[in-house]
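For homework, think about our next protein:
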Amino acid sequence: MQVTSNPYPVNNAYQKPTKATQNTGYVQQQIEQHSKQVSTPQNGFDVRGKVNLVYLLKPQDLTEFSGERNFLADLHAASKTPQELEQQYIQNGLQRDVGAIIFVEGKAVASQDYDGAIYGQGPEADIFSQAGNDPERIKQLVAQHFPDAHVEFYAQGKGPTNAEVFELRYGESYEDFVHEQVQSYNDQYLTDQIAAEEHYRRKLMFEQTPQTSVYSVDGQVVASRDEKGFVDAGQSLLDVADARGIEREILKELFRYSPERSPEDYQALLHDVFGKGVELTGYSTAQAPTRAEVYKMAKTG
């Protein structure tokens, strides 16, 4: 048996949700997974001289996603629109799920669905938990503990609608409640969509940055550098190092962000680690491959 005082607001139309439960669910979750919200200084973080700790990750620490996925398409496909949410509220409000209600001074304080789910707070709701689905036991406990209360039972499909139960409990219009919830959801939905689109735009800009220097070891692309001095070194470099039995700590300097280094300086660092076979290919900005293209080059060797 399920006992709860705050069930999910959409599935249980006659339970008023708290403010904390009013969000867009999947959309917010996905945005948080893809981009943690932090307080960023106006001019960004100064990471010069810092080391990217990715060099410490082992293959078992990494998960590779197969196939191309469109982040925005995933969000739009999986999240409800405000109109869909409104229809879900309306449909749930029309259902007749409640089999028993405890009233105190004419107000519905606790209820139990036909499937045993309990809604309400306090000792009145505990009665359903103690008695299960036994009507006589429920009546006995109500009479014993709450002389001013009474309980009503309803045959399957003959009781009040979920919307009517909501109004009996809260004394407010279910229609107004739905309007309020949908408006709140709509505001958050738009905010989440804007945040998702901004994140996706930044992701595309990052992937499309020209890489004016591309580094390889014995023909295997292992890193690249843009014209601002940002070196992108990742799994390909680690794979080559692991294949040669090179300790990860030796790679640390290759993952330090030092934009003052020239392309040749970074080539020298690679040579110190891998020896012969390190090559640097330079490009003009107009002819340089993008970061996404370099990733593909690294995968194909």
User: Anything to note?
Assistant: The radius of gyration is 30 Å. The longest strand covers residues 98-104. The beta strands are 3-4, 98-104, 107-113, 118-120, 149-153, 213-217, 220-225, 231-233, 278-282. Residues 213-300 form one domain.
